Structure formats: structure tokens, C-alpha cells
Amino acid sequence: MSAFQRRQAVRASAYDFSDRLPFNKHFMHFVCLLKHKRCSLGHVSNTASLPGFENLTTGYNKYLRPYFGGEPVQIAMSLDIASISSISESDMDYTATIYLRQRWTDPRLVFHGNKSFTLDARLVELLWVPDTYIVESKKSFLHDVTMGNRLIRLFSNGTILYALRITTTVACNMDLSKYPMDTQTCRLQLESWGYDENDVIFTWLRGNDSVHGIEKLHLSQYTVERYYTLISKTQQETGSYPRLILQFELRRNVLYFILETYVPSTLLVMLSWVSFWITLDSVPARTCIGVTTVLSMTTLMIGSRSSLSKTNCFVKAIDVYLGICFSFIFGALVEYAVAHYSSSQKCAAKTPQEVNIANILTSYRRNISFTSIEISSDNVNCNDLTMKTHEKIKRVLRNKMHRIIGYFTIQNPSNVDHYSKLLFPLFFMLANVFYWAYYLYF
Question: Are 102 and 162 in contact (CB under 8 A)?
Fold first, then answer.
């Protein structure tokens, strides 16, 4: 064989698609898929069809959506909320079990009659289904006991009902500034992953009536106030994608926190007022009440924050109330310290002193004799008789300081407890009025 003939043979073998290049097999298979035809090339398998519907699904291609190259597919959805097992303030999420139902029409599956057929869930692998996913989902799984919890139902007009049972943990951004008198708004969002709005259109089946079960939920700390559905779109770099939104509001039940936190802290404040009815001389009793209430209040504050350890950046309503209670308890302890100190100072100033007025007058007459004073114009020094200016300033300032100190000096320490019996409860009631009015109505 000549060199020219060998080159022609090599060129001919290079164009042998079925024997030489595996890439050409996949390419030819892809061409067959685009033409909606069944074909075999080498080891490439044929397009499978639904058992019992071979005449209907002959040439059916699950890799191509209905109306491929034409109008978008209308996908109507409905939801059943089976349960919301947990709502975590520390992790900012909630866990729910939902039944997701999707309906769409595939003209390739139209058959005569008015019947519907429920197919085995494993046959879903032979049909085209939407690529719906849950936005902001942290963890999700499809139930598979005893079989995968999926449903496929085929109607004569080509409508397909595809139902799934899913448990998902979804993020929910919470504002805890009014905790535990807060209302949180959470969302469950469904979106197409790969098909944009030119390929699929998401709609709710019956608006707000597309969601069931959420109004019957019994949660430990929350009550579902209201819910509503929305239709939206998200603009991303790869296109505009359809999105369905279920938005629901959860109002926290404050009764639990009233019994566990608000009532004990209020009772501790009232317990600190008992010391006002104990005499100032009972140092151990009043000190014990003050220190015990302060330590108990500190323990209560630490316990209330332990359940929300990851959200310490929030100044919550319950923190404000506990801070108010702690201030009143600490103020009662400081009140006793001030009253006891003033009482001890007054007792020290009242030490008995025997004063003999007669001796003072006699000594005064003996030392001062006006007849012995000789006034002479020669030996009188005016500078000695007049006080210097800086000494006058010192005396004036000293008098002012004594007067100011006198304003703050407690003349009768027993009156401190008397006024505290009235002022402490009055100011605590006013603080409660402003607190509850602000956090409940603003």
C-alpha cells in the first residue's frame, strides 16, 4: 500500500462516529433527544416509557419540559402545613413538615376518557417534573418510610399532580427587641432553580385558600395571627425566576413568661421593701434581706438570658424589666446604708457635754477688763484691727459649703424609711405603667 492510500485510510477512520470517538455517541444521543425520537447508538439506551402507556409515551422525553421552545409551563401549587415542630430564637429558624402539591399540564400525556390514574411514585423518574426548591432552607429531607412519600396522578387532559412530603428547617430573621411581647413574621418561599420565567410560571392554586393546616397549628409559645400568599420574582445574574411566598405572623404567648419571670421579679422587689419596716438598729436583718434579694435577682437575670445565649446583642423587653427590678432592689439596699450612716453620725454628735455657764462667765470677766485697756492713737495699728481680704473670702466660702452640706444632711434618719415606704412603691408602679404601655401599644 502506497503512502497516499495509507493517508486516505486514516482520514476515513477519523470520521467513523460509532466506533472511534465516545463523544460522538453522546452527541448523537443528544440530537435524538432534541428530535423527541427514540434511537440507539452503540450502548446508548432507549428512551423509557410509562408501563401501560407505551402507545401514549412513545417518544416522550423527560429531559424536555412541556411546550419546549414555546410558551412557559403554568405550575399551580398548594400547601398543607402538617406541623411546625420548633421555632428557635437562638438559631433564627423554624422547622416545619409540609405537603407540597404541584400541578401542571403536559400535552404529550393527553389520553381519551375522563379518568385519572395514580401511578407508582417510582415512575416519577420517567416524567418531567419542576425543579422547585425551598429558598433559605438550612436542611431539608424527603420522607421515605416505608417508601418515598411521593404521589403521581395523571389526568386525561394531560394534567399531572405531583405531591411531596418534606420536612425542612428554614431561616427566619427575628426582631427580639420586644421579646417576649413580640410578633415575628416568617416566610416559606418556593422558587424554580434552573427554569426562569420564560420557561415556567408559578401560581398559587386558589390564592390564600391554597394553604391549609396553618390555622389549626397548636404551638407551645406562639399563636398564628394571620397568613397570606404572595407571588414574586427574583432577579439574578442568570435571569428572572418565579417565586411563591407564604408569609405568616406568629404572636408569642406572654403568659408563660409572666408566671416564670415577671411575677418572681416583682415579688423580689416587694420583698426588698420589707426592710423599710425594720428598725435601723437591726443591722443583720436588713442587710440579709438586701443581699439576698440582690443575689436572687441576679440569678433570675442570668437564667432569663441563658435560653437566648446567641442573641445577647439584643436589648430585649424582658431585660429592661429585669433591669428596672434590679435597680429598685439595689436602691433599697443603698437606702439602708444611707439611713444607718446618718443615724450613727447623729448619735456621735449628741454625746453629752457638761457645760458650766457660770464658770464661763467668770473666766470671761476675769480675762477681759475694759478699764485696763488703754487706747492710744500712737500704738493702734489699723491693719491688725481689720481682717485681710483673702481671709474674708475663705470665711464666706466656708459658710457656703456648710450651708450646702446642711441641705443634704439628714436631720432625722428615721424619716428616710418613712419616705421610702411611700416613694419606692409609687415609682415602681409608675415604671410598670410606662413599661407595659410602651411595649404593648407602641
Answer: yes
Distances in Å between the alpha carbon of 154 and those of 51, 122, 179? 13, 14, 49
Residues 6+ apart with CB under 8 A from 339: 280, 410, 413, 414, 416, 417
Nearest to 142 by CA among 121, 173, 127: 121
Task: Work out the burial of residue 73: count CB atoms within 10 Å of its CB; fewer than 13 is exposed, 13-18 middle, 19 or more buried.
Answer: buried
CA 33 to chain centre: 50
CATH architecture of 256-347+414-441: Up-down Bundle (1.20)
d(CA 330, CA 337): 11
pLDDT of residue 8: 44
Exposure string (b/e) for 291-300, b if CB count within 10 Å is 16 or more? Answer: eebbebbeeb
Give Cα 43 to chain centroid, integer Å.
Answer: 57
Q: DSSP character for 300?
A: H
- Each domain of the chain, given as residue ranges in start order, spans 12-46, 57-253, 256-347+414-441
Distance of alpha carbon 290 from alpha carbon 85, whole angstroms:
43
- In this prediction, residue 30 carries a pLDDT of 33
Series of mean pLDDT values for 10-residue runs along the chain (442 residues): 45 38 36 38 46 68 91 95 91 95 93 86 89 94 90 92 96 92 95 94 93 90 93 92 95 93 96 92 91 94 79 82 96 90 72 48 51 46 56 77 63 79 96 95 86
According to DSSP, residue 66 is labeled T
pLDDT at 27: 32
**CATH superfamily, with its number, for domain 57-253:** Neurotransmitter-gated ion-channel ligand-binding domain (2.70.170.10)
Distance CA(32)–CA(397), nearest Å, equals 107
100 CB-near residues (< 8 Å, 6+ apart): 77, 79, 132, 163, 164, 165, 166, 190
Q: How far is CA 358 from CA 287, 339, 352, in A?
A: 48, 39, 18
Q: Which three cell numbers stand for residue 425?
A: 412603691
So what's the pLDDT on residue 7?
43
- Rg of the Cα trace of the chain? 45
